[in-house]
Automatic annotation (TrEMBL):
It comes from Arthrobacter sedimenti. It is an enzyme of class 3 (hydrolase). Keywords: Hydrolase. Residues 1-174 form the Macro domain. InterPro entries: Macro_dom (IPR002589), Macro_dom-like (IPR043472). This is O-acetyl-ADP-ribose deacetylase. It comes from the Bacteria. GO terms for molecular function: O-acetyl-ADP-ribose deacetylase activity. The keyword Flavoprotein does not apply. Its EC number is 3.1.1.106. The keyword Hydrolase applies.
């Protein structure tokens, strides 16, 4: 599996899976979540509402992941994951690692060949870019050891600022 780090707009990535740094409601929000919902169109919100009415009546748990079609995005699927909110006292880094691990697992289950992650938790949820990059590295290493023959060939980290990109490059060694 190849790891790539770049500064850019995750809504424009032509990959099988884009990962959404969602909130538990799955009904849209700010940052990456809002951008993906706007770019995907109203169908994404409708799909998320359907999930809330059926499988996830209480919302998506922190560290978990769920997939929807990507609708108007150039990707095939959106994998939604909810990071722990440090500002709300959720300081267990294992939950942050789980966001990346569960997203990787779900992408593998979907048969994805490539996927793009944002810096889950590094925005409004208060995690440092270094902590998020370390969680991502731990999750990727764990996934590779469990699935050495995975069809997942490329994992991109698509970061909003040059500063976060530099931190990810440093931590991930790419």
């Amino acid at each position: 599996m190849r790891i790539s780090v770049l500064q850019g707009d995750i809504t424009q990535r032509r990959v099988d899976v884009v990962v959404n740094a969602a909130n538990a409601s799955l009904l849209g929000g700010g940052g990456v979540d809002g951008a993906l919902h706007r770019a995907a169109g109203p169908e994404l919100l409708a799909a998320c509402r359907e999930l809330r009415e059926s499988a996830l009546p209480h919302g998506l748990q922190t560290g978990a992941a769920v997939a929807t079609p990507a609708f108007r995005l150039p990707a095939r699927w959106v994998v939604h994951t909810v990071g722990p909110n440090r500002h709300a006292g959720q300081t267990n880094s294992a939950l942050l690692v789980s966001c990346f691990s569960e997203s990787l697992r779900l992408a593998h289950t979907l048969g994805a060949r490539d996927m793009a992650f944002p810096a889950v938790g590094a925005g409004a949820y208060g995690w440092s870019a270094a902590a998020v990059a370390q969680a991502a590295e731990d999750a990727v290493a764990g996934f590779q050891s469990l699935h050495p023959d995975s069809g997942l060939a490329l994992v991109e980290f698509v970061l909003h600022t040059a500063g976060i990109e530099a931190v990810f490059r440093d931590v991930l060694g790419v």
